[in-house]
Amino acid sequence: MRIPSVLTLAACLAPALAGMAPAFADPMNAQSAERFVYGRTFFYTCYEGTAGAGRILDDGSVAGTIQMRGKGNVRYVALPAGTILVRGEKVCAKVKGLAFQPCFDLDKTGEQSFRGNLAGADKMWCEFKRGGSGRTRMAERATPKRNDVATADEKAPSDPPH
């Protein structure tokens, strides 16, 4: 298994937390970030094209999807309890195999959105927008799409046979 790069790690973890600066940016400390982010699903896009959706659960575990640099397959990612943790006023990540614990700067950019970047690395950012529940989207994906024209097996006779 390959150890994730810092960028990959930031893209995977940021949805769970967490160019041009947003017009409205309100820095979030760890406690306000927990209230705003934990348990909610967010769609995200990052500066280099990585995109996906995910959520951080109350135990600090992370679950979601990622498409690296906006190309290739969308992958499901799940990280264990304790991956996201609070260190003083910072939201940080603890990932097995990574030599350091990255922390994140989080800014609320709207009522349903925030921006996250690796602390001290303003050019490595992801934008997050709150989405529907994960269960709702999973149900939508699991429901087969119907064509406008039904197959012969799906058509019911209008009158019962005589």
From TrEMBL:
Residues 132-162 are annotated as: Disordered. Residues 1-25 form the signal peptide. Residues 137-162 have a biased composition (Basic and acidic residues). Keywords: Signal. The keyword Signal applies. This is Uncharacterized protein. It comes from Ancylobacter tetraedralis.
